[in-house]
User: Fold this.
Amino acid sequence: MTEFYNNDVHISENGVDLLRYHFAYQHIDYLDMRAIRIWNGYLLQNRWLILVVGVAFVLFSLTILVPGATMLGDFSTSLASFNGEAVAMKLFIPLLLISSGIYVIVLSMKRSKILSISTESGHYDIRIKEFEKPGRIKSLIALLNAKVPKKVEVVD
Assistant:
């Protein structure tokens, strides 16, 4: 008996269970499915919003970091005149913002396989990045083709 399980979905012989906090909140029976498609998409659903936030972090941190770097680069002032608060504000916080902005930008660009299920009552897009290991997608397609009346469409 083959089962597929991640934080969002549990696919078994009985059907597809959509999970929230590891508890099934909705069950989709195989006979209710009208169409199933596996395609390449992005890991995050609202990736453009996340991308804009990441770019804003980077730009904001650069507007803080550039004047701070010129202040530290000026050799006419001594380091004794700087207090710890100014150094933290001018260097540490912008570097933290720029690193978190770059992380968010990279996260918004990550790709994943998506399982799209259409039923009479709705449409569900489920990220199945955990199943991308060699052979897991093929066994998932084999299970779905055996259980679902319509053939699974795989788009690469």
